[in-house]
Amino acid sequence: MPFSSSPPMWTDSGKTSLVRSLSTHLSTAALDKNPQSKARGITLDLGFSSFTLPFADDDTNVAQITLVDCPGHASLIKTVIGGAHIIDMALLVIDAVKGIQMQTIESTVLAEIATPHVLVVLNKIDLYPEATREHDILRMSRTIRQFLQSSPELRDAPIVPVASGDADGTRAPLEMPALLAAMREHLHVPRRSAEGPLCYAIDHCFPLRGKGTVLTGTVLSGRVRVNDSIALPMVGAEKKVKSLQMFHSNVDQAIQGDRVGIRLHGLDASTLERGLAITPQSLGFTSNLVLRVHQIRFFSLACASGAKVHVTVGHATVLAKTTFFTGDRATDLFDATREYMYVPSLPPLQEKQVDDVWCLLQLEREILCPPSSQIVCSRLDTDVNKQLCRIAFYGPLAATIEHVATGVRIGKVKERRGVVDKTLDDGDVVVVRDLFRKETNLDIFRGLRVQNGRTLAVGTLDAAFGKTGKCRALFDVAGAMPGDAIVLRFTKMLFQEKTLAHRLRQTKTLYEAVDTPVDNADDCERRQAPSSDAVLLPIIAVDVEKKCRVGLVERLKGETAPNGSNPMVIATGLFATADEATAFVGAEVVTDANEHGHVEALFGKAGKVRVVFELGTMARVGDQLKLFEK
């Protein structure tokens, strides 16, 4: 049974050494074969190796474990995200000496996105003094467990202390059998299927002299057999499979979950590095994606409609424009025929949790997106030295859209305000001023309903009145008086031709939910308004009084009191630089337990600060801290 496992974590935590200690078969780019990796001493590319693991000590049935060694450096996170979509279990490797760092967050997030099966590996325990090693392991394990409590997926993840050793043998491995036992105990049998068209994720491509070109990768769905024709859409070619090989053994076929090498003829290896191989005509390029949004709790910035994010699907990363919208909570399925409501911005999850949100991603270039893809959206333009989580949100692919004008219906509630200028006839005909500019084509708005802000009576726009932008509104009953506010609410459909009146929509509840008079509006400023429709057209309130910064307790300071509290902590992640932190000296900081302290002083030059708690704090290393800006 093939089974893929990946050790994600930051630079120097010992991932590659761990892979070296576990592996019995080396494959593509294993153990930092890349010359630049050796020169720089860090992993630069995905590396693959494997070993076999019996299901029991006396069991002849074994699982073949493929290890995916991911880069740890912050600048290579695109490679890590690309590798996350092919794994069944994650090994979250943490340096026993450094413990929880701010960079741990992105690795934790990727592990949560990739798989529910995670083992935490506390590596380099041999660097603890032997006399205090047991105590130090217990102390660090408690710290890690406290950190994991913020994750519903990882709060019960096993923590396995090991030492993976090093390449030259100067440090011997410790407790590796315990890690193998933990992996076996938590091994699950992945659900594999050979049905459906082939989708094969290519991670490397290289020439084999006299033999052709070899693709290495993982079968995401379907199967591939010798003599099958496969399409390579990235280079616009179709090739016949000459042979297949799995870890140095020739095979006739490979199915979903298998890591396999595919040999082809007539393909220039320099034209293809990463991408997909598919059954011909089974998958097309797309530039518009829809997903249901799952926000990342550590991402501390707002996500605004119209902003650009980095979208990663498999090994492809491309910029995209975002449009957030909300729908009916009764269904989890996207329906292109339904009308959804525009959401201008999503606040950080720490400030407000917003449910039932979708996102339209308009990509800057077309990509291949298999139906079962997990889409990860990040802000990779953020400075890697700012110690901020760059992964914003993710979600499964809900739909691909060929044309946004016909493939998605998103409405934005707008509001215009005018004033009753005078009444005509018996008072049921009202002349309204300041609702439109004089150059506005009022035919577009004819027939839309308006409301008197004082009497709450609802009328209908009839026609222009003169050439100065005034209009007539018809009401069933008289009662309007000069100076009354007249409110026009409507839903404006996005992505439609600007000149067409069918962009405008109204529903009964736009006015029915209003049960208090609207104040007279002397300035009559045109603005976007929140919808009063709480049933058919819900609008999410995103305005907040304060902006929240989120950081972590890096260490405790001062003498610990008998009750276990400490007077000070060192906080990281609240600020990117010391200059930024200077402006917040004296600002209030709150723990998850609602303990209040204040920023007393800077701590170093990396944006860290010393936070003082007058009454002490029970916070521990890895706990969250919040600072609310006024």
From TrEMBL:
Write down the InterPro entries for this protein, in alphabetical order: eEFSec_C, eEFSec_III, EF-Tu_GTPase, EFTu-like_2, P-loop_NTPase, T_Tr_GTP-bd_dom, Transl_B-barrel_sf
One biological process term in Gene Ontology: selenocysteine incorporation
* Tr-type G domain location: 1-191
* Stored CDD domains: eSelB_III (cd04094), SelB_II (cd03696)
Which is one GO molecular function term here?
GTPase activity
Q: Which PANTHER family does its entry note?
A: ELONGATION FACTOR TU-RELATED, SELENOCYSTEINE-SPECIFIC ELONGATION FACTOR
Q: What is this protein called?
A: Elongation factor Tu, chloroplastic
Q: Which organism is it from?
A: Aphanomyces stellatus
